[in-house]
Amino acid sequence: MKLGVFAVLFGQKPLEEALDIIADAGLQTVEIGTGGFPGNAHCNPAELLADEMKLRAFQEAIERRGLEISALSCHGNPLHPTAEVARQAHEDFVNTVLLAERLGVKNVVTFSGCPGESENSKYPVWVTCPWPTDNLTVLNWQWQEKVIPYWREQAKFVTEHGVRVAIEPHPSFVVYNSETLLRLREACGESIGVNFDPSHLFWQGMDPVLCIKELGAAGALFHVHAKDTAFDRENTATNGVLDTKPYTDELHRSWIFRTVGYGHGEETWRRILSALQLVGYDGAVSIEHEDSLMSIEEGFHKAVSFLQQQLIRERLDKVWWA
Fold first, then answer.
1. d(Cα 87, Cα 270) in Å, to the nearest integer?
2. Per residue in 121-142, pLDDT tens?
3. If we measure between CA atoms, which residue out of 159, 138, 166, 2 comes closest to residue 72?
4. Residue of 33, 36, 195, 315 with fewest CB within 10 Å of its CB?
């Protein structure tokens, strides 16, 4: 496995400066934002596709520092019921796939998206329980009329261009856990897999190690994020985990995203890394920073130090048992 970072963390810095920070930290891979929610501060796919010199300069800036691109990421909602929002997300995805092909990058990370409840919707509707039974009617319509038709077409498209789609399970989208990811993969093909982010699973009560084993056995483990989740015991005990308060209201929320090691300790993360190794994952572990209690620099360097130590121990353990 190789340690890297999702470079949108340094989106306020020029590309070359951001790459210097990443390389100086001893990382090996970089994940680049190309649109959608992460934005495209360091990489505008349409611009690079139209200008061979800019494309070459972009690629050389990364290679010159001994880095490789683990994924291009355009997290968006191509199933949004508002046509213009869906169109922009789809355009970002298409351009990202075409750029990935040109760069020789195999992973494009995105969300599954989420439609509305009908053709007349204005906003996405995420179904979270089977009752009232209207919910199941909506869910069936979403999958049969929107989700599967769209992703079947995209699965063909990415296959034609030698790329694969790493869907990131995330609440508020139709793919939010292992079961829904595997349902999409079964319906649309093996070019669809997972961008595995434990932080989105922890607060749903899932065990990342078991998820890794299930997804790994299915051949669906394409890319991995490193981000943690911490719980407030009292707030969770009184309000549960379905918390709609802003992420900035840390004092009153049931859970918040944290830098790795600040939600779950060394033992948990060693189990996660060991599970990845056991299922044969040899790709990137890409640090994602969304910790509102730490600055960008502090969160980044703490995550790097923590994960480097764990990966070194994993390698030593492998040598010992061999």
1. 41
2. 999 999 999 999 999 999 999 9
3. 166
4. 315
